[in-house]
Structures are given as structure tokens and as C-alpha cells.
From TrEMBL, chains A, B:
InterPro entries, alphabetized: FAD-bd_oxidored_4_C, FAD-bd_PCMH, FAD-bd_PCMH-like_sf, FAD-bd_PCMH_sub2, FAD-linked_Oxase-like_C, FAD-linked_OxidoTrans_Type4, Oxid_FAD_bind_N, Vanillyl_alc_oxidase_C-sub2
Family, as annotated: Belongs to the FAD-binding oxidoreductase/transferase type 4 family.
Pfam families: FAD-oxidase_C, FAD_binding_4
Keywords: FAD, Flavoprotein, Oxidoreductase
Segments forming domain FAD-binding PCMH-type: 40-219
Cofactor: FAD
Protein name: D-lactate dehydrogenase
Single GO MF descriptor: oxidoreductase activity
């Protein structure tokens, strides 16, 4: 495979397919399509900006025929390097395939092209009283295609699920350039094997998604947000387990450890008492008449002897203020450590205290500040190693520390990634988690969808 | 492949693996493992009754090595013939692999072997205040393995989803006898491709499920059941669409047409006025404090100018009485037409009136009584053609009528099966619905999981 430069013939054919406005060849233009939020970078040979599905099919077919690797990207908000064209070749950006094709409120369905942003979908759905549950923090800019390719979720997943629970069907193109339709337009369907969910979370390695049929959920009438402050992590984790054991499932149950709280104290105007060692943001939604009861039920479960304070926001402004703190966290972390290592491991909810204790131990042992926050209701914790990339000693220690973290997560019956995906960053750790027979089958499945191996080569699965 | 008799060698090896108590060889014993609720029958050469996963692995390996086909069955409640060993060979019954391995309420997880009944799982979960949402009508006898293999759901799916939305991971054995582990023990996980959902609904053609990690849901505190009677189908379908457009999703939304109501009138003690042309059973659940509001909200959406009566059951006894009528339906139908053709098509909720009108037209045209009921909230309608199997003319007409029904369903953006599966009965219709590239990939995937084609041959997918 020659992916270090385009042949004249390839370039000519791409121009014929896409027109000069649909193909970026200048270095400066191509450069900006070479990175994502993993902070890796590789400039692609060219960038295809198709406006029609026929163009996508033709581009994939050309790549397949001429052995050119192809990386599909939305807006590059992924953190694991899945959109970085490390094997060279072509980048296909879905940005011009951004149409909302249909909103069908009678059937709770929305049909959309991959390049539409999550926010555009939410707005279109909201006009009819609905929403689409997956809500990554980057919802304002990230695309539906990226959400689907990574099975990216967000806080609401604890109540409403991930894309896998909220997608009915897909259209796409296989690696050998064949248009493909999967799934159904209904909420039930068992004809054939479930190729829809096979494509969801496959990070562009099995096919190019060109259209998705999304399952909508009615917007809740009311919302209540609570903030609970705890003396320490164990108390907060205990509260999470109690909240999840009673029948009112919150629509968000977010956690911050001491380190994360410290970040906010230093980098925003939020005031939190010194003795606070952990924090939960808890949100419930539902019918207006029941919201008081729901808030009371989760508040009761959240209270324990080490709960220092429980604040309830009762209107939009108060809710915004509480969330602002949570949203200030990621930028604050970037300020302190621009190249922080950000993982998104998951453990069973009851094992969260063990995870946090273990992370603190590892941080001390390796001399690395580790800051933890995330979607506690799913046990999905964002583990941030604050390291200086210019210090080779620290980077070496961080690599060893990360390896120990992953082993600990697996020993706690957890998984290495809840929503960020594997990309390049976690690829070499997959063998520690995944059953060898399952891994063999994944490679075999990849070979059926993409026989020449052009789709996002080197990503998602460890090399054979 | 010689599946017409066991060789001495095969028999000897099976005895070594299973012991004499774990292998049925007598004709009378084998006979009862030859049918399911499709009313097809083929006696298998032998029946394996493994008690350990190691035995399952050894049996599959032997079948693979000696080219013996293998049909896995739970309790044979499936209606599409998936458990009938039409290719001869061996039947493996999971009835002795029925252990509930773990109930983990802190993490909302239950781990179970495939032979446990749905009811056993519900009871074990209920002791801790939880339930597992899938609830086929046959829950008292059907097995979890069968539920997973068919992705079988039931009334609650409208609110809580099918096995695909309620299963975290699986253990199993591939067709070439390799033990396999898929998925996670957490509610999020994106490492590797989603093999769990690929196996769910694959009807025993990709692997033998030996263990499942199920996601539990807290039992609701309260429940309210409503029965609404309508002048005709359009009015009922309109009510369904209105109910599904407001934010309170019912936990059951069941429909019966005029023909189904007639059955109950004649074959039970229930009294329903003559002018009633359609009926809805609507159930809501949730916190006790909110249940009144929920019932009021759905009742409001259910009422329209052609709603003749709306009854609300307020205690367990009243609820039971309302459901008794719904449950009397299937046996009543069997009384009238022991070999009724029972389909479970799905259409988008808004197309239900068109479906029912179309079915009535087709019934008249072919001179066949068609009775319809089912899970209206999912648009999943059980279409029953009441035919006399001894009348060749009528059976010929029924085949043509069925073909027209399937075409109509697909024209309405529907799917051929919502939960019964394909088995043998619908296998030849799959090509009408499934995209040819998707079908090609399904066959290729099958070949990876089951290279010698021993697992449930001839089922689920149309022959190549």
C-alpha cells in the first residue's frame, strides 16, 4: 500500500468524483484535517468533502481499488486518535453531509446524515418535543457520525443509554465500496443479524456511515439538579450505589474527586469548603407533578453521615450555575496540564471506591497527580494523569502507571473504555481485556467488511 | 454431512462426554425434543443434556469434527421453528444448565445459565427489588437462552427494551468448539466490536450461549392498568400514536382488533359491547406518588371521540382481571384454529391503521379470517390467519395472502418479525426485507463463527 503520496491517476479520479471544491490538496488545508483531541497529528494526502452518498461510494471504491487508506472524520473531537490518519492516505470529512433528512415525531424517529452535529439533531428533535439521549460534552460541535462510530454517550446514558440503545438502523458503505443498509425503522426487529450495533462503536474500521435512523425520546417536562458534597470518596461512592439501588434512576450522576475539586477551586470562582473530598452532581427529570418526589428520593439516597452539604437547584439559572462548575473542569485541567493523559475506564458501580483508592495509591507510587471525575452512575470514570510531556522521566512513569491502572480496572471487573473508544491510544491494551477467541472473530469480521484493509487501518483492534 | 444416523464412534464419544444420563438415545425420549411451538417436528438422532460448560464445549467440538449438525433448544416455546432439528443431527437441551450464578443488586446485574426460565430470573431478581425487562407471554416456562437467541421481548419492551437493551455480556461456544466471552460487566463498554448483540437474536446459528450477564431494572413501586374500548381500529391506532407522543411511556400498550375481541367474547366470560371494534390495554408503572398522574396522562391521550369506554384497574385483583382477557386470547385462537398461522410483523406506530385496514382487505380477498393483536406501542402486531390445514385450497390461499401481507408490511416501512424470529417459517422471505450486501455479510459472519456450518443449519438466513 502506497500511502505516502497520491498518484496522478488517483488525484485525477478523486477530482472527477468530488470536483475541485470537494477535494483539498493544499498542505495548509490538509493539515487541519490531521488531528483530533488526542493531540496526535498526521497530515493526510488529501481531504475528500463529499456532498452526496454516491460520492462517498465512489471514493471508497477508488480507495479499495487503488489500495489507498481512508479515515472518516466528523469534527475531530474524539480523544483516542481514531480520526488521525496515521497510515497516511485520504481523510473523508462528513461535514457537508449534514442534512437532517426527516423528523417523524409520530414514530419517535429522526433520520440524519453523519455530518450533522449532535446539537443540530437535538434542536430539530426539540421542535417536536423530543431529544436524542446521547450527549457528549462536545455536543455543540461533535457530529452524529462520530457519536455513532465511537458509541459516545455522556451523562444521560445512566438513564437513557448510549447510541446502541438509541439507534434503529444505518446506511453506509463497506470497505469494498458496497452500499449497505442495516436495521429497521421500528423499535423492534429481529430479521437477520444485528449489523447496526456491530457498526456502532467500530470507529470507522468496518464501514462509512452515510445515514442513521435515530430513536427519539420525549423531552421530560421538568428537571431538578442537586449537588452533594462529601468528606471523602468512599462516602460519595456509597451514595452512588444507594442512589442506583432505588427505583428513581437519575438522568445524570456525575462524580468529582478531591483533585478535580481542587482544580475548580483554583481555576474558577466556585467556593467549596476545604474539608470536601468528593462531590456528586445528581439530576432527575420527569413529569412536573412527580419531580419533587424524584428529587426527594435521590436526595434521601444521597445523604449519609459523611455528606457535608446537599444543595438543590430549582430553576434554570440555579441549574446552570451548578453545571458550570462541572463544565469548567475539563478546561481547568487543560490549563494545568495541556497534555494530560485522559482515560475513561469503567468499573461496576460498587467497585468505584476501590478504583479511586487504587488510583490514589498509584499516583503516590509514581509521583503523578491523578484527577478523577466522570459518570458515576455508569461507573465510567475519567482518569486524568497530569504529566509534563517534556519530562521523559515522568512520561516513562506515566506509561507504567497507566499500565497498572488498566490492570486494576480489569481486576475490578471493569473495562478499559466506556465511551472514548480505542483509536490508537488504547489499542495495545485491548488484548488484556478481550477474550482471544472474540478478538480473532473481530479480526475476521473486519476482513469481511473491509477485505483490503483500507478503512482506518491500525485502529480499534491490536494488529494480528 | 451424514445426519441420518449416528456412527458408533459418535455415539461412544457422546457417551464419554455426557455419561449415559446425559444422552437420550431412545426414540420415545428423542421424539419430544423434536418440536417447538411452530408445530413442526423432526426427531433428532440424539439429545445431549449437558450439566457443565466443559461438556457443551466437548459436544460442539465433536459435532464440528464429525460434521454432525447441532440444534440448541431451551423449552421449545419458539414459534418459528428455530429449535426443530430439520437437518437431523443432535439436539442440545440447556435444561440442566439452569443455575442463577450470581445476583449482584449493587451493580444491577444478574449472571445466569441459559436453561434458567425467565420466571426463575424474575423471582431471583425480585428478591432484591429488581426485574429483567424482557417478558414473553411464555415467561413461566421459556428459558433465558431462548429469549436471548430470539431477542424475544413482550409487552414491557415499549418502555424497557428487548434483550439487546438489557444484556451486558455473554459466554458461549463457537461452531468450531471454541469457548468465547463477549461484552462487559458494566453498563458502558466500547472495547472491540459488539459481538454480544451479534449473538443476541442469532437463533443458535452463530454460537451456543452458556452464560449471560443481564442488566436489571429496579421494580416500579406502583402500577396502573387501563382498558380502552374503541369503535374501530383507526380510533385505537390514533390513541396509540397520541399516547406515544406524550412523555409518559407506558410499560405495556397492547392492542386487539375486532376479530380478536370476537374470539374472547365467544371463548371466555368477558363481556364487551357489540359496537366495540378495537381495544387497548394500557399499563403505566413508576413511583407510587406519581402513578396517579401517569395514569391520568395516558388516559387523556387515550380518549378520543370514538373511545366508547375507559376502565381503570386500581388494585392487583382488578389488574389481573383485565389481563386475563388478554391472556385468554392465544388459547382461544388455538381452539378455533389449532394450526393458525401466527406472524409478528412490525410497522411504525403511525402506520398501524393502514396495516389493519390492509389486513382486513386481504382477509376478504382471500376468504381468510385474520385476527390481529399485539404490542401496539412498538407497532408489533401478531397477525393470525385462521386456516384449516386439511383444506389444500385454503392453505394455498393462505400462502399467497401471507406473501401479500409481508409485501404490505415492507411497503409501510415495517419489518417481518419483531420477536418471534425467522427460524424456518420466514426464512424464504428475508430477501424481501434485507439489503443484499447486508445479507452477504451475514452469511460471511456465519462462516467465521461456524466454519463447518453445523449450528442450526438452514435457519435464520435464506440459503446462499
Amino acid at each position: 500500500m502506497n500511502n505516502s503520496q497520491l498518484t496522478n491517476d488517483q488525484q485525477q479520479q478523486l477530482l472527477e468524483i468530488l470536483g475541485s471544491k470537494g477535494l483539498l490538496l493544499e498542505t495548509a488545508d490538509r493539515w487541519t484535517y490531521g488531528y483530533d483531541n488526542s493531540r496526535r497529528h498526521c497530515t493526510p494526502l488529501a481531504v475528500a468533502l463529499p456532498t452526496t452518498v454516491a460520492q462517498v461510494v465512489a471514493v471508497v471504491a477508488l480507495c479499495n481499488e487503488t489500495d489507498l487508506s481512508l479515515v472518516v472524520r466528523g469534527r475531530g473531537t474524539g480523544t483516542a486518535g481514531a480520526a488521525v490518519p496515521v497510515a497516511g492516505g485520504l481523510v473523508l470529512s462528513t461535514e457537508r453531509l449534514d442534512r437532517i433528512i426527516k423528523v417523524d415525531p409520530d414514530n419517535r424517529v429522526l433520520v440524519v446524515q453523519p455530518g450533522a452535529t449532535n446539537q443540530a439533531v437535538q434542536q430539530a428533535a426539540a421542535e417536536h418535543g423530543f431529544f436524542w439521549p446521547p450527549d457528549p460534552t462536545s455536543a455543540a460541535v461533535c457530529t452524529i457520525g462520530g457519536n455513532l462510530a465511537c458509541n459516545a454517550a455522556g451523562p444521560r446514558a445512566v438513564k437513557y443509554g448510549t447510541p446502541r440503545e438509541n439507534t434503529l438502523g444505518l446506511r453506509g458503505v463497506t470497505g469494498d465500496g458496497r452500499p449497505l443498509r442495516t436495521g429497521v425503522y421500528t423499535t423492534k426487529g429481529v430479521v437477520g443479524y444485528d449489523l447496526t450495533r456491530l457498526l456502532l462503536g467500530s470507529e470507522g474500521t468496518l464501514g462509512v456511515i452515510t445515514e442513521a435512523t435515530l430513536k427519539l425520546t420525549p423531552l421530560p417536562e421538568a428537571r431538578r439538579t442537586l449537588r452533594a458534597l462529601y468528606r471523602g470518596t468512599r462516602a460519595a461512592a456509597e451514595a452512588v450505589a444507594r442512589i442506583m439501588a432505588q427505583p428513581i434512576t437519575p438522568c445524570a450522576l456525575e462524580f468529582m474527586d478531591e483533585g478535580a475539586i481542587g482544580m475548580i477551586r483554583n481555576y474558577s470562582e466556585v467556593t467549596i469548603p476545604e474539608e470536601v473530598g468528593a462531590l456528586l452532581m445528581i439530576e432527575v427529570d420527569g413529569p412536573a407533578e412527580c419531580i419533587e418526589h424524584a428529587a426527594t428520593a435521590v436526595a434521601e439516597a444521597a445523604r449519609n453521615s459523611d455528606c457535608l452539604e446537599l444543595t438543590e437547584a430549582r430553576n434554570a439559572q440555579e441549574i446552570r450555575a451548578l453545571w458550570q462548575m462541572r463544565k469548567a473542569l475539563s478546561p481547568a485541567l487543560r490549563n494545568v496540564a495541556p497534555k494530560k493523559i485522559n482515560e475513561d475506564v469503567v468499573v461496576p458501580v460498587s467497585r468505584m471506591p476501590d478504583l479511586i483508592d487504587g488510583l490514589n495509591d498509584l499516583g503516590r507510587r509514581y509521583g503523578i497527580t491523578i484527577v478523577n471525575f466522570g459518570h458515576a452512575g455508569n461507573g465510567n470514570i475519567h482518569v486524568n494523569l497530569l504529566v509534563d510531556p517534556d519530562d521523559p522521566n515522568q512520561m516513562g512513569a506515566a506509561a507504567e502507571c497507566l499500565s497498572d491502572i488498566f490492570n486494576m480496572v480489569l481486576a475490578l471487573d471493569g473495562t478499559l473504555s466506556g465511551e472514548h473508544g480505542i483509536g490508537l491510544d488504547k489499542r495495545d491494551y485491548v488484548v488484556r481485556e478481550t477474550d482471544p477467541v472474540a478478538l480473532d472473530l473481530m479480526h475476521r469480521i473486519k476482513a469481511q467488511f473491509d477485505p483490503t484493509g483500507i478503512l482506518n487501518p491500525g485502529k480499534k483492534l491490536p494488529p494480528l
